[in-house]
Protein 1
Amino acid sequence: MTTTVRTRVAIVGAGPAGLLLSHLLDQAGIDSVVIDRRSRDEIESTIRAGILEQGTVELLDTIGEASRARTVGHRHDGIELRVEGEGHRIDFAETVGRAVWLYPQHEVLKDLIAARLAAGQDLRFGVTAEGIDDADRPRVIARDAEGNPFEIEAEFVVGSDGSRSVARATVTGSSTGGYFREYPFAWFGILCEAPPSSAELIYSTSPEGFALVSQRSDTVQRMYFQCDPDTDTTAYSEEQLWDELQKRVPGTTLKKGRIFQRDVLRFRSFVAHELRRGRVALVGDAAHTVPPTGAKGMNLAIADVRLLAAALGALLIDGDERLLDAYPETASRRIWKAQHFSWWMTSLLHVAPDATDFDRRRRLGELRTVVESEHGRAFLAEAYCGWPFDA
Ligand code: DHB
């Protein structure tokens, strides 16, 4: 027997985008049902990036004290670009008067899930969407945790179901259809028990490749180094990992400690050909992917949601479709700016495996153009902190 629930908006995917959308819709008096194939525990423990743009933090403020981005997270007013051992600080406060917050994505998810459940949100874990029927009154066809058929009938369906989106096929006609680019390198990420090696993040490029010295807390640090995309996480001993990291960060002696988590992050750029079809729209990773350099992924998802929440409000409260019609075009502007920035920062800092000596020198020339110019630093700072929303 198929269980059918009816709601105004069906949201497939309880990542940051889906959860925040359900909150914004609720604020506008619009009911939604959110489903995710994962368990709550899996969602809350998946390690992702750690940088929130100022606009993201401000939007998260609307969930009230449940957002701990400002209380547990840390404001960062700058980053360092380390160019072959030479440090250059990019001062966000001075260049653009904005900041970012270091607060890991899984903590954002814990906050959002707690806030949504406290508000009485219909939020179901372990429910797998199998397809979407994009009729005038669209339906999500799913299965619950026990394998029983389950359907959501709604006025609108939003696919916030990540890079392996089921909703994408409904919107674009294919699960892979989009603009796509792969990169010949990846990041080896570690979490370790150690004090911070630096007060701010260090993005370091050296002849050995790229490394990022990031943080999590006073006692836990997050670091990444450039590696081959096929690297096995068990390929290195702890000592070798520290050697790989250290040789990419000349000028700082890294504070070492037990490494308790390792992962390899592949680099991809992707934008779906379509973001909306009829009564179904895509947001976040279902619509686009960026390489991790610059940490735009979640911030971009949240920016999509800001637009789509307003569009759905206009549609479902006033019957006005104009914002929804404009959504693909409006969202694409920021998506492609973020695509450019993520690609640019990646190309600027990494050593391509087939790079010639000319390429390396040209890249250093580009880095100096950025760090030695007020305009160059401001360009980087504005993109890193996030372009203002009325732009
Ligand atoms: C982190 C990840 C990023 O991709 C980045 O650019 C900065 C920080 C992080 O996980 O801390």
Protein 2
Amino acid sequence: MAKVAPNLDEILRLDRAHVIHPTTEFRKQEKQGSRIFVGGRGVEIELADGRTVIDGFSGLWNIIVGHGRTEIADAVAAQMRKLAYYPSFYDVGNEPAARLAAKIVSLLPADRRLNHFLFSSGGSEANEANFRFARQYHGVRGKESKAKIISRRWSYHGETRGAGAATGITAYHLFVQQDPSHAYFAPPYCYRCEFGKTYPGCALECAQDLETVIKQEGADTVAAVVIEPVMGTGGIIPPPLEYFGLIQEICKRHDVLLILDEVITGFGRTGKWFAMEHWNIKPDLLTLAKGISSGYLPLSASVISDHVYETIRDQMPEGLPFMFGLTYNNHPTCCAAGLANIAIIEREGLVENAREVGPYMLERLRDAFGKSPIVGEIRSGGMMAAIEIVRDRTTKEPFPNFEDPARISAAAFQRGLIARGMFQCVALAPPLICTKADIDRIVGILQEVWPAAEREILAAGK
Ligand code: PLP
């Protein structure tokens, strides 16, 4: 019999009284209380009530190497004993940040010339810094009016002021006026094409829409477009093959920088070290987070290409610094965690594993649920997959309030699996250490809960 934490009631009481949980309905949270997690090993996570469940979502897409890696804890402890922290403002540097930047450069395709790193604490911050770099790049060239950031509907880029505005999922914008220096264009969401077209006979109107929006806004007001290679939170939406070729042409034509947000896709999630390799994307700026440290410590990176860096370096008036910096930029201990994490990914061949196990996961999901009357489409991008739930397969009628996918994930949790109810999808993004046998366990649990879910959803739709 698994052991229940002796102080569980106290933890629950304190949590309810004092801790705000992100992206949570406060009213419901107070009533239900929290699930307290206390440990983790490999693909499994342990709860304070004694249960163990499979982490089918790698925390929040990020725990690439799985739980309980003492090797990372040791690297972090060793760095903390030497130098836990010192700011890297002005001319101060540290070894882990320098080594981590060089390590990631060695993993990136060399011809992208993405050589300059500013490490921060999370994906939102890294996007925010990249927006600043993009604006600064135009500003120092005498084009200060080029300040707007364009992103896609259904995109997710974070929650800070700029990153939150770039996030194109409207649910995040309710009750909050967004930063007005943003505009949106159509996503490559073929299942729900905004233009009513079907790929490949569509001329990629979704990509062309970027040009329409740049012209509407005025190219002289647009700094950059920020894009996830595979849309994550919006529903795991990979683009058609030719998509990024068009996007890049449009950016070049209008002197608009391309920021590639690889916060989810970086470090092997799609079966390559970086998703830019699948579509031959050549970004001017790159955003990394999540898998960079597998969440063992908060870490992200804004990576800028030589030409953006050199423009800012060479065009800034002599004696003026680049006036941007956060206390925890280039944090030595967080960078030490990143180095230890990447060493594990390399040594254990986790990118190669994702390349093999990801397609297996898609195949198993399609076999198990492809014909279900509540399933509209099953998509994947390597080791992440989404089952889009619909009320009606023919009309593709979506859910009005996203509650049904969340209900499926709640039922799966009761049977021992964390699968995320993500808007209209049930989504999986297991750690890259996942074996085919782990995938069989995950799919098996979903199969156990599916018949009841179908019955409930179909009955509710009547
Ligand atoms: N960009 C993408 C693609 C993400 O998925 C996320 C978070 O899920 C972010 C940015 C924001 O990262 P963070 O939550 O670390 O600020």
